[in-house]
Amino acid sequence: MAHPAAAVAVAVAAVGDLIPGIPDDVAVRCIAQVPRSHHPFLAVVSRSWRSLLGSPIFCAARSQLSLPDPPALALALNLRSPTDQSWFLLDPFLRFSGSRKKSPPPLRLPSPPLPAIGSACASLGGSLFLLGGSVADVPSLAVQIFDARLRRWSSGPRMSAAREFAAAAAVGGRIYAIGGCLPRADAWAESLDPSAGGKWAVVPSPMLIREKWMHGCAVLAGRILAVADRGGLVYDPAAPSNEARWGPVPPVLDNGWRGRATVVGGILYSYDFLGKIKGYDPESDEWKKVEGVENELPTFLCGATLTNLGGLLCLLWTGKDLASRRKEMVIEWAGIEISKTTDGRLQGSLLWQEPVVLDAPKGSYIAHCVPLDL
């Protein structure tokens, strides 16, 4: 392996020194300490700085510093076919601001080496885990891991069961894969500890719950919620026995969950067919409308996706007006800060809403949206 200083020198040799009179490896460590919110200003210092900011070497240097930056979003778009995907990185720090006329284009990420239909996706820190999926109409055992700091894919330990359209989640430092395979598979549910570098371990599950194909997943209060075609499941890794770890989701939650959902601040948020954002409060076992944003967002968000972006409720949807005038894919994204009032209502405050033009053909749609630490 090349010495870090030599690697940095190679990375910037084409555009000149980073800081005159200072070795490049020292300069990288100095620049890496600047908060990510200031990176747009660093990018205009010189060509060499702009090149450095997008390099794996710089990401690795910031990772070693353990800086408290909020996550970015890894966004996968399905293009002309479900196996034709493009991946992008949306960074909330690089949004449009008054100091810039427009937001910089999102960073295009390398696509997974193995194109698959119906892969499950979960993230743990700065790593994204893409599990299984159908390859040439055959469910796969493959695990593909994307390192957000090095910005490259690698192969992980293969699952024990081939899966497509499974539920995937990260809890307690482990990655879980549930369903998406034949009901009689011994490893209908299994888990992986990435830090141990070992194999997937079977998670015992009752046969009665296995006749389900998952289409939604979230983690609420340390428990995995997996919504299926006929009733959802709860898996609690901390329960005292294997039998006690599995159960049905509360009926109220099950009946109100629509599409992709996410958890922010102990509340499960979903976007319903009436065009409303609502949150399931486990304390009161009820769905509550998110108030305060009705007049600031469009009446209906086409293809809405929700995710937790560093404690903010982040929404993404297909942009219509701007998209009609372009050949590229246009999405809108918005950040909402939500608080709970003294009487238990959910109050939202819109922090931003902006269009993003992606280097992908118009008509593409969002396949995955996952927060990643950089």
From TrEMBL:
Xref: InterPro entries: F-box/kelch-repeat_ARATH (IPR050354), F-box_dom (IPR001810), Kelch_FKB95 (IPR057499)
Pfam families named in the record: F-box, Kelch_FKB95
Full protein name: F-box/kelch-repeat protein SKIP6
Source organism, top-level taxon: Eukaryota
Residues annotated as domain F-box: 21-58
Lineage: Eukaryota, Viridiplantae, Streptophyta, Embryophyta, Tracheophyta
FKB95-like N-terminal Kelch domain: residues covered: 106-356
